[in-house]
Automatic annotation (TrEMBL):
It catalyses: tRNA(Glu) + L-glutamate + ATP = L-glutamyl-tRNA(Glu) + AMP + diphosphate. It comes from Chelativorans salis. Residues 343-455 form the Aminoacyl-tRNA synthetase class I anticodon-binding domain. The keyword Ribosomal protein does not apply. Keywords: Aminoacyl-tRNA synthetase, ATP-binding, Cytoplasm, Ligase, Nucleotide-binding, Protein biosynthesis. Belongs to the class-I aminoacyl-tRNA synthetase family. Glutamate--tRNA ligase type 1 subfamily. Its EC number is 6.1.1.17. A motif ('KMSKS' region) lies at residues 250-254. Catalyzes the attachment of glutamate to tRNA(Glu) in a two-step reaction: glutamate is first activated by ATP to form Glu-AMP and then transferred to the acceptor end of tRNA(Glu). The keyword Cell inner membrane does not apply. ATP binds at K253. Residues 3-317 form the Glutamyl/glutaminyl-tRNA synthetase class Ib catalytic domain. This is Glutamate--tRNA ligase.
């Protein structure tokens, strides 16, 4: 069977760089194996799920370079979940419980006070038909729990029951089902919690590997048991460390912190985001990969650390900057064209300015400087203004090439006696309106004599 993976976000907000980590882990895993990547929207929470968030997630993934082979929405698959519920009930593996949240909390506190694990004691299994009817007559509606196979004959006497798997990321793993509460699969209102739809979908879509954050390690034991209860072999599992801020705080879709959309709008390069999201917290050095193929070559899920991966947004900006500074014109050209940068001078212009910009969109500012001149008249002292006027009178004849700047400044130096900063700074201010920027030797051939003389202060 070919490798099939899935990324299963809930469309309840914008995804952030922390969400990009499992998306990219799964995509690269499938890419290296020649397998399939499924985007599955876990949108059974109809009160919070929004179609616009789902559309934004698809846009964000495409921007990162992830193209799903299949897109699935759980909201379209309720009949499959109802069928699984019926199967589990018929097998006696899904049972009704009537406790309120307050009652469950009280029982947990009692167990903790007795130094017992705070797991559900299966009290609902002790109810007979008459007691259940009485509770329902009082207006209570049951939620439904999956009966974990952690007992011999009597479910009220659980015993250590180990579930083992070879984790794609963490190696050999063991979970004791006796340390867990029977998971709730169906709420009082009949809606489904995450676990049941997830397992049903993984079975029916042929998912072979589930790679996700390490906050799901404990859940895996119960999910493996549910796969078996539904007559299926469990996929392989992998649990990677999660991204946090430098202070150790988790990221939230609701806060919008470091959202993919926000990073895109800020001009961060997509491969900077992908490279950081994949390589940080692993044994690999965090450097920017030019494309997904290069990143896939460095991707090894087993290289992930057990500790949370802390990152600094400043590092993200540095990676993005390094990609822009090394970006060949052929790659930048379509984006430059959208900024109005085109024509016979576009390539020379890009090679001149790319090393001096933080985000690609800043190239448009330099293009205006080259084609229109500085936005404002340079603020020069009287002495510098006189110097610049003299310098402009010494401009060499056109056409200008790579040596024209040095020819010009040598003339100016000989005529005025100025050199170093006293020579170059006023000329730069007069030509560009800025104190720093691309090499003027590279910019001068992009200008013409008439436009330069028009900039004379």
């Amino acid at each position: 069977m070919s490798v099939t993976v899935r990324f299963a976000p809930s469309p309840t907000g914008q995804i952030h760089i922390g969400n990009a980590r499992p998306a990219l882990f799964n995509y690269l895993f499938a890419l290296k194996a020649g397998g399939r990547f499924i985007l599955r929207f876990d949108d059974t929470d109809t009160a919070r799920s929004r179609r616009e968030f789902a559309e934004q997630i698809e846009t964000d993934l495409r921007w990162l370079g992830i193209e799903p082979d299949l897109v699935v929405r759980q909201s379209d698959r309720f009949p499959s979940y109802e069928s699984a519920v019926g199967k589990l009930k018929e097998a006696g593996l899904l049972y009704p419980c009537y406790e309120t949240a307050e009652e469950l909390d009280r029982r947990r506190k009692v167990r903790l006070s007795r130094r017992l694990p705070p797991v559900y004691g299966r009290e609902a299994l002790k109810l007979d038909e008459e007691e259940r009817a009485r509770l329902e007559a009082e207006g209570r509606r049951p939620h439904w729990r999956f009966l974990l196979p952690n007992f011999d004959a009597d479910p009220l006497s659980s015993q250590r029951t180990e579930i083992h798997w070879e984790d794609v990321v963490r190696g050999p793993q063991t979970v004791d089902l006796a340390s867990m509460s029977d998971p709730v699969l169906v709420r009082e209102d009949g809606t489904f919690l995450y676990t049941l739809p997830s397992v049903v979908d993984d079975i029916e879509l042929g998912v072979t590997h589930i790679i996700r954050g390490d906050d799901h390690v404990t859940n895996t034991g119960a999910q493996i048991a549910l796969f078996k209860a539904l007559g299926a072999e469990a996929p392989a599992f992998g649990h990677h460390n999660q991204l946090t801020t430098t202070t150790g705080e988790g990221l939230s879709k609701r806060s919008g912190a470091l959202s993919i959309a926000g990073l895109r709008e800020a001009g961060i390069e997509p491969m900077a985001v992908a490279s950081l999201a994949v390589l940080i917290g692993t044994s690999e050095a965090v450097t920017a990969c030019r494309d997904m193929a290069a990143l896939a070559a460095r991707f090894d899920p087993a290289s992930s650390s057990r500790s949370p991966a802390k990152f600094d947004p400043v590092e993200l900006q540095a990676l993005s900057r390094s990609l822009i500074h090394a970006m060949p014109f052929e790659e930048a050209a379509p984006r430059l064209d959208k900024l109005g940068i085109s024509g016979p001078k576009a390539e020379a212009f890009w090679n001149a300015v790319r090393g001096n910009i933080e985000v690609l969109e800043e190239a448009a500012d330099w293009w205006r400087v080259v084609t229109e001149g500085p936005p404002e008249t340079a603020a020069l002292s009287d002495e510098d203004r006189a110097f610049v006027r003299t310098a402009f009178e010494l401009l060499p004849p056109e056409p200008w090439g790579s040596e024209s700047w040095h020819e010009w400044t040598d003339r100016v130096k000989a005529q005025t006696g100025r050199k170093g900063r006293a020579l170059f700074k006023p000329l730069r201010l007069a030509l560009t309106g800025r104190e720093s920027g691309p090499e003027l030797a590279d910019l001068l051939p992009l200008l013409d004599r008439e436009k330069i003389l028009a900039r004379q202060p």
